[in-house]
Amino acid sequence: MKNYQRLFIFTALILGGMALPVFPQQNVVKPAIADRDLVIPVSEITENAVFYPVDIGGTRLEVLAVKAPDGTIRTAFNTCQVCYASGRGYYKQQGTVLVCQNCGSRFRMSQVGLRSGGCNPVPISAANKTVTDTGITISKDFLTEAKVIFSRWRRG
User: Fold this and answer.
1) CATH 2.102.10 fits 24-150, yes or no
2) Average of pLDDT values for 69-85?
3) Which of 128, 147, 150, 148 is nearest to 139 (CA)?
4) What is the DSSP string of the chain?
5) Does the first or last residue of the chain, that is N or C, have fewer Cβ atoms within 10 Å of its Cβ?
6) pTM
7) How far is 79 from 144, CA to CA, in rounded Å?
C-alpha cells in the first residue's frame, strides 16, 4: 500500500469516527552483534521478517527470520546465490513477500529456508542451527563459514 493510500484511509477513518488501522512494522533490523553465536528469541519472530546483523571478523552478515503461513519459523541468510556478488543481493519485505534489491525477484515467506539455488535467500538448514522453545542459535563457526557470500554485501 502506498503512503498516499494510507493517508487517504487514515483521513477517511478519522472523519468517519472509526478506529485506526494497525500497519505492521516491516524491515526491522536488530542491533548488530559481533564475533559470537547469533541467538534469535522465538518471541520476536512473526509474519514480518526480522533482520539480524552479525559482524564476524570484520565482515557483516545478516540473517533473516520469519514465521511462514504454516506457522513454522524459517531462517536464511539475507543474500542469494545469484546476486550476492553484486553487493546488492539482499531482501526487503514488501507486504507479504521478500524482494531482492538487485534483480527484483519476489519470494513468498513459505519459500524462505526451503529453496536453495537461484535468487533465493540462502537457507540455514536444521543441521546448522539449534532450535529450542525459546530461541534459535546459529553458531559463530557456521557464520564464519558463510562470510564468503557476504564479502561484497552492502545493505542500502
Assistant:
1) yes
2) 89
3) 128
4) --HHHHHHHHHHHHHHTPPPP-PPP-SEEPPPEESS-EEEEGGG--SS-EEEEEEETTEEEEEEEEE-TTS-EEEEEEEETTTGGGS---EEEETTEEEETTT--EEEGGGTTT--SSSSEEE--GGG-EE-SSEEEE-HHHHHHGGGGGTT----
5) C
6) 0.80
7) 15
Grid cell, residue 38, equals 547469533
Query: 89-145: per-residue pLDDT in tens?
Result: 899 999 989 999 999 999 888 888 887 777 888 999 999 999 999 999 999 999 999
Q: What is the pLDDT of residues 132-153, one digit of tens each?
A: 999 999 999 999 999 998 888 7
Cell numbers for 73, please give them.
Answer: 519459523
Domain boundaries along the sequence of the chain: 24-150
